[in-house]
Amino acid sequence: MDRTRKPLIVGILREKSITGEKRAPLSPPDVKWLVERNVKVEVEANTQRVFNDSEYEKAGAVIVKNIKAASLLVGVKSPDPPNIIGGKTYMIFSHTAKGQKNNITLLKEFIRKNVTLIDYERIKDQRGKRLVHFGKYAGICGMVDSLYYYARKLKNDGIFTPFLTLKQSWKYKDAEDMRKGLEKVREKIATEGLPNEIKPFITGLIGRGNVSSGVQEVLSLMGAEEVHPRDIDRFVQVRRRDAKKIYMIIFYREEKIRAKTGKRFYFEEYLEHPEKFKSNMDKYISKLNILVNASYWDAHYPRMVSKHMLKEHYNKKRFRMKFIADIACDIGGSIEATYKTTDQKSPVYTYDPSHDLYKKGYKAPGITMLAIDNLPTELPKDSSESFSRLIREYVYQVAEHGALNITEHVVIPAEIRKAVVVQGGELTEGYKYLEQYFA
Question: Is 29 exposed, middle or buried (0-12, 13-18, 19+ CB in 10 A)?
Answer without folding.
Answer: middle
